[in-house]
Write a structure and sequence with these properties.
single chain, 135 residues
């Protein structure tokens, strides 16, 4: 018989964010504009704008375009990061928005990106990271 370990149960993702060190949005954007998803300069400009609209402090950014299509990029912020990977051929972008502290609103970044890529549909799941109350 396997040995039972005394480990805490997983924490539900809908706990109040005030008890977490960070908030992370896992974002899917569907039905986006194909041309915008494949434009490295546009993707860079709007991921950085999303960070600014959320109230984040940008530290650095790095982006790369793929052949025949697609862009990936990260924006390092004082409060953590934003990242994106695009599939223009599927009109889709996957985005990760991770923020720490109370000064940055990741949902503002989500709304900014959904509008910037003209997404027909967006979905996001918020995960609360780092729970000192569970130590």
């Amino acid at each position: 018989m396997p040995e039972m370990m005394d480990t805490p149960r997983p924490t539900p993702v809908n706990d109040p964010p005030r008890r977490a060190l960070g908030r992370q949005l896992l974002v899917d954007l569907y039905g986006c504009d194909r041309g915008l998803l494949d434009d490295l300069a546009y993707v860079r400009q709007h991921l950085m704008a999303a960070a600014e609209h959320a109230g984040a402090t940008i530290i650095d950014a790095h982006f790369h375009s793929f052949s025949p299509c697609g862009v990936t990029g990260t924006v390092s912020i004082q409060e953590s990061h934003l990242s994106i990977h695009t599939w223009p051929e599927h009109l889709y972008a996957a985005v990760d928005i991770f923020t720490c502290g109370d000064a940055v609103d990741p949902w503002r970044a989500y709304e900014t990106l959904k509008a910037a890529f003209a997404a027909d549909k967006g979905s996001a799941v918020e995960i609360h990271r780092g729970r000192p109350d569970l130590q």
